[in-house]
Amino acid sequence: VELLRHVMDELGVRRGDAGRPQRVGSIGDLIDGRHENDLEALYFAKHELDFIVAGNHEVAFMGGPGFIGQPHFVQDTLGDYLKELRFRGLLVAAVATHGVLLTHAGVNKDYAHVDAERTAKSLNADWDTFLSMPPARARMLREPASILGLSSLRSGGGISKLKSSAAPGCLWQDWEELLVNYPKNFSQVVGHSARGRIESSLDNVLYNIDTAGYRVGIAVITGKGEIILGSDFQAP
Question: What DSSP state is assigned to residue 32?
Answer without folding.
Answer: -
